[in-house]
TrEMBL record:
Stretches assigned to the Fibrinogen C-terminal domain: 80-285
Pfam families for this protein: Fibrinogen_C
Protein name (record): Fibrinogen C-terminal domain-containing protein
Location within or outside the cell: Secreted
Keywords: Disulfide bond, Glycoprotein, Secreted
Domain of life: Eukaryota
Chief location category: secreted
Family matches, as SMART domains: FBG
PANTHER family hit by this protein: FIBRINOGEN ALPHA CHAIN (PTHR47221), FIBRINOGEN C-TERMINAL DOMAIN-CONTAINING PROTEIN (PTHR47221:SF5)
Transmembrane segments: none
GO cellular component, one term: fibrinogen complex
A molecular function (GO) term: protein-macromolecule adaptor activity
Length: 329
């Protein structure tokens, strides 16, 4: 009887021991399984991140390839500046053009009152020719997030995308006995055009932060410079950048319900003649990977929908002069 009790006791102890071992084994299995699942998820996430980076890289290469293709299909402009001096592109067209057809391209001008000559892009085909191009954008190669000093002197490539520079623009449009027009040309991907024309255009000097002044509007893009409310009017506003803030937001503005301290910061650090941001800004960022164009020109009627203008791939901001002698004649 004693032997039987001892055997039963040993059997119970062995059963309990086996149960604990089984529980420990199950717990260890559960831990190892969880670790395996976590490792697999981490590996999967790493693979997804790698694939995402590869897709972004391919998209960037596609954008560059499209740029190369576009450049090959564009009519090439003379690369070197033509050694034909004039006060501006209109003056060159009226003098050189009287002898022979003046081609579009780079010219050296020396505006009256300017301290030195400089190169400009003259469009001799657009609307009769004689237009001095002061800003041009096509596919977003040149970044327009620039400092005040860069907007003063200009940046980019006159054979491609560029901003001519506030000082040069001032020298051109503030010559005596001249009257300048401003023409903003917008073109969408499906080659639909919209434009805004102003029959007067000049800017004040650097001490007044290059305040812009525009004449009467005509066109089908809408008068985004003046807007539709008094607080949207950007006419007579100084130029503003992220490091020299003249946008009138004191202490801040409200855009679409959001507080905005700086219109330039709100526009990805682009420079423009902001007035509490306003409705016009043609120096925003081109986001070609998402097919977005962060440019403002509200009120456009051609194309009819604003999202069509948001895909504009060509902006041609130009100035044309009319000399007093020509007007009198």
């Amino acid at each position: 009887m004693l032997t039987t009790c001892i055997f039963l006791r040993e059997h119970q102890l062995m059963h309990q021991l086996n149960s604990r071992n089984l529980q420990n084994s199950l717990a260890e299995y559960a831990r190892s399984t969880k670790k395996l699942v976590r490792d697999m998820m981490d590996d999967q996430q790493s693979s997804l991140d790698y694939l995402s980076n590869q897709v972004n890289e391919l998209m960037n290469k596609l954008v560059l390839l499209n740029t190369v293709i576009l450049r090959k299909h564009l009519d090439p402009l003379p690369y070197k500046a033509v050694q034909s001096h004039g006060l501006d592109c209109t003056h060159i067209k009226d003098t050189v053009g009287s002898v022979s057809k003046t081609p579009s391209g780079l010219y050296i001008i020396h505006p009256e009152g300017s301290n030195h000559p400089f190169e400009v892009l003259c469009d001799m085909d657009f609307r009769g020719g004689g237009w001095t191009v002061i800003q041009k954008r096509t596919v977003g190669i040149v970044q327009f997030q620039r400092t005040w000093s860069e907007y003063l002197d200009g940046f980019g490539d006159l054979n491609g995308e560029f901003w001519l520079g506030l000082r040069k623009i001032f020298d051109i449009v503030n010559q005596k006995a001249t009257h300048f027009n401003l023409y903003v040309d917008l073109e969408s991907e499906n080659e639909k055009h919209a434009y805004a024309s102003y029959d007067g255009f000049w800017i004040e000097d650097e001490t007044c932060s290059f305040k812009i002044h525009l004449g009467h509007y005509s066109g089908n893009a809408g008068d985004a410079f003046r807007g539709y409310r008094r607080e949207d009017n950007q006419n007579s506003m100084p130029f503003s950048t992220f490091d020299v803030d003249n946008d009138g937001c004191r202490p801040m503005c409200t855009i679409k319900g959001q507080p905005v301290k700086s219109c330039s910061n709100f526009s990805d650090n682009a420079g423009w003649w902001f007035n509490k941001c306003g409705l016009a800004n043609l120096n925003g960022v081109l986001h070609y990977t998402e097919r977005l164009l962060d440019l403002w020109w509200s009120g456009c009627q051609v194309p009819a929908q604003a999202e069509d203008i948001a895909l504009a791939n060509r902006i041609h901001l130009s100035a044309e002069s009319h000399y007093a002698a020509d007007t009198a004649g």
